[in-house]
Prior knowledge:
173 residues; 2 domains
Amino acid sequence: MSGRMTKVGVLALIGCLFLVLFSACNVTQVPTHKIYEYGSIESLPKDRLIKQKNAFTYRPGDEIMLTWKPQATGETMDKAPQKVSIEAGLIGPFPSLDELNKAVSFDRSSMTGPVATTMTPVQTDNWTDTAVSTKLKLPSSLKSGYYMLVQRILTAGRGPKTPIPTGSVIYVP
């Protein structure tokens, strides 16, 4: 009988050890947060599109409404959101669409040309599931020609070094 008690005692001791180990491992879970990325600018107003020029027409002094919608890209256990800075502007003018297209790199990831105007960067974070909007004010001195709308999105200070062409061409008559 004492041999049996010993086996029961050993089994109870092993059970207690497992219980202690598992309860120590089951520390409170770290909360997760959805993370979001901002991509390309939403489409510009169709009433500004001139199909034969394949460009959106604006005049000096006009404002271009720009909107970025977030897309969920996963989850994180970070304790705080990362700051997101969104910048946009126009590069140009170019005398023709052909000249504008020659200034865009072959992979469409960069562009050469003078910066005509920029907007004040919009600040948000990667936990926010809210579209951000702002207006790009065109200077009254903006010259006639074709411009490429460019953008740069930085998350926690990381991102492209130069603005990226959006593919949206602005024509100023």
